[in-house]
Amino acid sequence: MKLFCYGAEQTKMYKTLMQNPSASANKPRKTILSLQAFKQEKNMFNKIISFVFLSSFLTSNSFSQEIEQDTIPVKELSEVVVSVSRTDKKINEVGRSISYFSNKDIKNSGVNSVAELLSLAEGVYITGTTQDFGANQSLFIRGANSNQSLVMVDGIPLLDPSTPGNALDLSELSLTDIDHVEVVKGSHSTLYGSSAIGGVVNIITNKKMKEGLNMNVRGTAGVFGKETSLFSQNIDVNYTCKGGFYSAVNFNNVNVNGIDATVDTAAVDLMPRDKDGMNRFDYGGKLGYKSKIFDIYVSGRKTEKTSDIDSREYTDDDNYTLNFSRSLLSYGVKCNVDSNFSIGVNGAQSSFERVSLNDSSIVDELGTYDHQYYKGTYSGKTFINDLQLHYKQRAYNIVIGGGINEQKMDQQVYSYYHGFIWEGSLDTLNLISSTNSFFVLADLNGSIISNKAKGFTLSLGGRSNKNNTFGTSTTYQINPMMKISDKASVYANISSGYNAPSLYQLHSPDRDFVSTITRGNVNLLPERSITKEFGINQQINEHAGIRIAYFQTVVKDVIEYVYLWNKNTSVQALTFWDYRGDTYLNLGTLTTEGIEFEAKGAIGKKLFVSGNFSFLRGKQLNSYESIDTVKTQGNHVQLYSTGKFVSEQDVHTTGLTRRPVVANVSLTYVPASKVFFKVIMKSVSKRNDVMYNYKLGPYGALDKTSVQAYTLFDLIAGVHLSENISALLRVENIGNTTYSEIRGFASRGRGIFFNISYSF
Predict the structure, then answer these.
(1) CATH number of the domain that residue 42 is part of
(2) Which pLDDT tens digit goes with each residue over 659-675?
(3) For a Cys staple, 721 with which of 66, 288, 641, 725, CB 3.0–4.6 Å?
(4) What does pTM read for this prediction?
(5) How far apart are CA 251 and CA 232, in angstroms?
(6) Kindly report the CA angle at 131 between 126 and 137, in degrees rounded to 5?
(7) How far apart are CA 220 and CA 233, in angstroms?
């Protein structure tokens, strides 16, 4: 992972943080199995549990699938999603904006990462997708901050307590073992709790497959830029027994000899600029049993990743590395008691560790050293356990659930800089965040009132969270939908959300040498949001349809990183010696709104077109009346994000950073059932980026600068060579367009990647 640090805050952070009832009373219910059969299943259930927990540790499952002859890029309305209601629902039965990527979509896209796949969805923008493969990949859904959108695997949140904002770096994920991916836009805190203001991404892995042995072996090789290379190998093995037992193992390795991650502005290089490489290795397995009654599994995954990184924009560093590891052990048990009632339990334990190492290195041909050494070890753990009850009837569905989410974080930092030594540790603070939650979701059909109203559905939900630090918070959602016809529907959504402060933001003990004010602020409140959305879905025929959505999200109590300055000196007269430290405060109100458009259609029998467009704008208000004067001790407050002082007046900011207007267009030609050609265009608008400006205040702060728009074209060609063998060629950035995704960091340029897959 590459961490892109901009000026004082990131330098500091890097050196500190891196540095029911199941039937009607009047009706006999129809059960799935007889009493005798149920006893047999119960006995089998006990055997399964014993088998699972006595088995050796395995992780993840198989990606193996039969080669599909159909290469048509069509998203059927019959596809089933679970992220919207925690139950199986067809897309055309859901009144929310959803992007769905099937296993076939993933294979035919030719993408090399989860981030590249998600960036094809409307309303989603990800930084780092076209940079070096080890770059930090931050997710932005509908303009929400990267720590306000939730990424899950099989419904299990991937939270990273070792980062300041609990945000996940998408470069840590692989494309292996994926059945499909669901992206639900808009607040989903009622079902999933914190970090779901912008939306959720749910990666659904493979489970039970066809009986017998299933295997997929896949290899990818590619080049991009000068003297670069990428090699990826993947093996997925799945074995499914006739009785419903299945097991799977998965191995994936990615080795990248990359480009220099930063833009070179030197007229003459005194030293060769290093090429920032990346290595990632995933392995895992899954054991499970699936029948009409039970769905049981235990899985595990281990990820290890090493990346070369640079200290900041435009600044090459040949001896800066980041090592990352994650272990994830998860389980799920679901029992369908009868056709109406089910009960399920799932949970996970995950651990993260990041080791950042910057050794003293030669910076020019004269043998000059930078005289610094830094090592930071940051670790975190999460424990998640959920219980869910689902009761359904023809006219309504009710989901009731609850659980506990616990996070822990440790940090150890050693820094040497020009003769000065600094050491810090958070492991003695016993940093723990614990949240107990309870939620209920009811999906009601208009047929309850009248058969004439059966086209109307209403989803109502509420959630209560009790956290050990900031107490109780509640969220809700109201989601009506009306089917105008079999192929057309309109919907609305009003939902609230919240995002809890990270452990680092709450408890960091760091403080300036002249100040008693710590960076951590235990008085922080969760960020709270209200989202309003209106959408239209129109399916024209099997291969054609449109979807339009308008949304507005208002986030209050936005957490800001701030500088503090001596209250006894006027703002105009402040000098560096008036500096009183830094901290986090609830100061802002962020408003974003936008329009999302998606369309697909067929031109004849062999040509298919699809595309989407996402327009986004936003503004933020930072109010001086919101300042926590007890925490700040009455000192002047300067926003690090803009350099402006909030102490004397409100600060209004227009425009979003790194969240552009984006358009994606795909044209697919299928001359034969086993061959396809695809052209993809991606257009990104001019947008704001950030730069550290030393002129902003005595110490300096971030400032805005613009980054030019760009348009890229990719070409994909795929062929099924036989029933078991398929090959794909992807040429990225055909025109070798020069552009910047993020100011100061280099993009990959033209890339050529070849993929071959063997399945049986």
Answers:
(1) 2.40.170.20
(2) 999 999 999 999 998 99
(3) 725
(4) 0.87
(5) 11
(6) 35
(7) 7
